[in-house]
Amino acid sequence: MWAPDIYEGSPTPVTAFLSIAPKISISANISRLSIYGSYGATLQQIFFFCSIASMILGALAAMAQTKVKRLLAHSSIGHVGYIRTGFSCGTIEGIQSLLIGIFIYASMTIDAFAIVSALRQSRVKYIADLGALAKTNPISAITFSITMFSYAGIPPLAGFCSKFYLFFAALGCGAYFLAPVGVVTSVIGRWAAGRLPRLALGVIGLPVTVRDRLLRCSPPVVGTTRAGPGLDSER
């Protein structure tokens, strides 16, 4: 897989762009195809199996990661699987749910990489480097923790709402196998992504300092990832 290596070796702003832009572009084009035409049962089945593979691979691979960017990369792979759930439905409800999921995913990713970028000299590499962040900058620790809990799909955060809509759409279109697979992989991903806030709020790892600009940029962004559904709703 190229994504983890690219994420780790690129500057943080580039990593954030690569994590968001391709997904938005591909989702927009396939959504247009679904609305104004039809991609047929064959392509729908391809999305079905790709969705399952992405969710399982992303969740299992994220468990073994020790570096922040590689964990975010594998979490991104898992989120692609959740987004493909909407395409697997081939219905308007599926498209609507994936558009909500894309918006929430983009907001969470921007917030996560904004915090990683704001860490001193952008040198935070390992998950353990987030240790004791609560002591050096509690606002940053809380912001990052809320973002990662949303990533993990903890209710009632926005990440949970996006997955709920996608799984509900899958059940509505008869893709009954996708929903339980998604729930199981979400539980696994919850443990993997939950390691970051546990370290940020705990006393494990190396203390890190955060630039003052994080205090200016974090609160507006975390408001989005903390919200409910929709608008109500790495380096």
UniProtKB/TrEMBL annotation:
Query: Where does this protein reside within or beyond the cell?
Result: Membrane; Plastid, Chloroplast thylakoid membrane
Spans traversing the lipid bilayer: 46-64, 99-119, 139-158, 164-188
Keyword vocabulary terms for this entry: Membrane, NAD, Plastid, Translocase, Transmembrane, Transmembrane helix, Transport
**Membrane topology of this protein:** Multi-pass membrane protein
Q: Report what the protein is called.
A: NADH:quinone oxidoreductase/Mrp antiporter transmembrane domain-containing protein
The residue ranges of the NADH:quinone oxidoreductase/Mrp antiporter transmembrane domain are 1-189
One Pfam family of this protein, by short name?
Answer: Proton_antipo_M
InterPro entries for the chain: ND/Mrp_TM
Catalytic activity of the protein: a plastoquinone + NADPH + (n+1) H(+)(in) = a plastoquinol + NADP(+) + n H(+)(out); a plastoquinone + NADH + (n+1) H(+)(in) = a plastoquinol + NAD(+) + n H(+)(out)
Report whether Ribosomal protein shows up as a keyword of the record.
no
The GO cellular component terms are: chloroplast thylakoid membrane
